[in-house]
Amino acid sequence: QVHLVESGGGFSQPGGSLSLSCVNTGGTIVTSTMSWFRQAPGKEREFVASMDWIGENLDYAASVKGRFTIARDRAKNAVYLFMNFLKPEDTAVYYCATSVGKPTIATVAAWGQGTQVTVSS
């Protein structure tokens, strides 16, 4: 079983930084693509970033490219999202996820419970 648990969410002023962590505690090693999505109040869940098992294929949403970095530690069965130069529009619940191929709402096989990120003055 795959059980994803996120942590690291919290509050930041605009321009600040936060780091998110997602660990699989289900006992099964995740060998598929891992990704981050986010969902703001009143909006649909959207893709943020992804990385394959090897770590050679990375993808970022245009809205976060250059500000966010995704990283993966296979030994720890974890994926991270390092967020810099945060903006109020980054405020959302962030979810980690797994998928066999390119991650979309339709292809995600497992979701974490989410962690809140709030960016405000």
Show unreliable segments.
Answer: none
Radius of gyration: 13 Å
The oligomeric state is single chain
Mean pLDDT: 93
Instruction: Tell how many strands the DSSP assignment holds.
Output: 11
Q: Helix and strand string, N-terminal first?
A: EEEEEEEEEEE
Tell me what you see in this structure.
This protein has 121 residues and is mostly beta strands. It is 0% helix and 47% strand. It has no helices and eleven strands. Strands 2, 4, 5, 6, 9, 10 and 11 form a seven-stranded mixed β-sheet that branches. The protein is globular. The N and C termini lie far apart (41 Å).
Indicate the topology:
Elements (H helix, E strand, L loop, with lengths): L3 E4 L2 E3 L5 E7 L8 E7 L6 E6 L6 E3 L7 E6 L4 E6 L8 E8 L10 E2 L3 E5 L2
Parallel strand pairs: 2-11
Antiparallel strand pairs: 1-3, 3-8, 4-5, 4-9, 5-6, 7-8, 9-10, 9-11
Note the main attributes of this structure.
about 120 residues; mainly beta; seven-stranded mixed sheet; four-stranded antiparallel sheet; 11 strands; globular
